[in-house]
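Usage

Read records sequentially. Each one opens with the input sequence:
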Amino acid sequence: GDPGRGKTLVESVGCLGCHIAQDTFTDKEGKTRPARRTDFPLERNYGFNLVGTGTKVNPNWLFNWVKNPKRYYVTAPMPDLRLSDQEASDVVAYLMSMQKPGFMQKQIPPVDRKALAELTRSYLINTLSERDADARIQRMPLNEQLVYLGQRTIEKYGCYSCHNIKGFEKAKPIGTELTIEGSKALHLFDFGFVHEYAAHDGDSEEHKSPKEEIIHTVPSWVYNKLRSPRVYDDQRAKVYQEKLKMPNFYFTPEEAQTVAQVVLGMTKDMVAANKLAGQDPLVRVAEEGRKLVSQHNCRACHVVDGYGRQIAPLISDAAYLPPDLTPEGGRAQSPWLFNFLKDPTVMKIRPWLNVRMPTFHFEDAEANTLVQFFAAEGKIPTFDTTRQMTPDPASVAIGHTMFDMMRCAQCHPTGAVVGTPVAGDTTSLAPTLQYARVRLRYDWIPDWIRRPNEMIPGTRMPTNFPRDAETGNFVSPLANVINAPQFAQYKVALVQRLGSEEEVNKLLKDVPRITGYMRDYIWSIGITEMKAPQSGVESPPTNAAPPPAVPASRELKSSRASSPPTGVNHAR
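and closes with the structure output:
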């Protein structure tokens, strides 16, 4: 693979929506310092930091992982970006170049046999007498002691609670039950002997915070436990087995306060059934879909519910931003959205985008939940009863004339889009209308034409029918230009259809009628039947043969010869 091309891919196809690829950060004052989690939006902390990847992974494994993570781990949160073998090889070459050589130079200290024996003994005497424990240790080879102590340490710290580890599938979590933590009495919290401490927001002295004060209240105990999880061991003499185990997540004060609020909200108070949220079925469906949106980090690339698109600062041209999904429920027909979620490659409406809509390998139930979520957010029925509408040919013809008068085709292709736009000519990029009949809701089209900036503030779609400042009604510019020489052909066509200039002038002042005719024409454009998801894309492979290893250098040369030129955009 070529690391230069790999870097371009990582920076363009969407990887940096979920991942960070830097370990330093330059603040507003221009000072560069070690990067912190809070320097970036939550969505960009979804995946691990890519810095140092080349130090810790095997390139063959990495190749197969970026090709299809679900094949390694079926519930992996990372989606499939449908990389070709060459693209995956390029990405691997770039990620393997991100080394931290100093990390590997640190020597592993030799085993302290005395400490190993003492720790092993501390576990054995829980089930054996001291005499039998000592005899057992005498018989255990060094490696057996290390394995035994490793198993016990995994049990002590509950590593299996987050990781799948063979042999610990049925082990119980080690953490305190938090279901009613907010109702626990104050005397049940052990404050130890400490009254103040200095927490850390990171793993270095530079991240050390000012001293925190411990107040003897439940909120203070929870907050300080989050800020410095083992603080209540300070100034106490405790044996190894009794010491606190919770890891330090280096929460900032704001993060610790937020988590503490959630924990304190977990109480045994019972809320009357008629007072519970989610009484409306649509509200419950929307909440389940909202969970999926968060679990799959959709807001890293898209605006959903009015916020998101954290990848935007990394994309210089707004024409290449992933779409705003706030109006998706009212905009998209449910069958189309379902098919697109299952296989984003079939019907590409913005093929020039560099950022790829991933294949998430959604199961049908998940795709349906997301479809219902968007419909609930749009406050409309899930299924569109106008799907089989067939507009009157006369309406289509008038709409065609309106479409031409408004020069809609200057931005919106009405057929298949081949290739990518000319470099620098991105001001008129807009979705193709060849899928309008199967993709867009019939009644949404005229509403969008009338008020695009109200639906999506800042949209590139022009507001062709502004509202009157006094009445709030839409104003048509067409009535004032129809007599201009360049519109003569359109005037003739409209008079033929409507019968008189008077009727034409009346129409050109009526914005709802104009946009209704335009909708009927747009509804007539393009395909009338959806394309089915491609075979093999809609679900992750099961019991599949192992993926191929990284191609040998000789094979890479031949694959480069047949690969597309460097300038080609591999867009969704």
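Summary fields computed downstream for this record:
- The longest strand covers residues 208-213.
- DSSP finds 24 helices and six strands in the chain.
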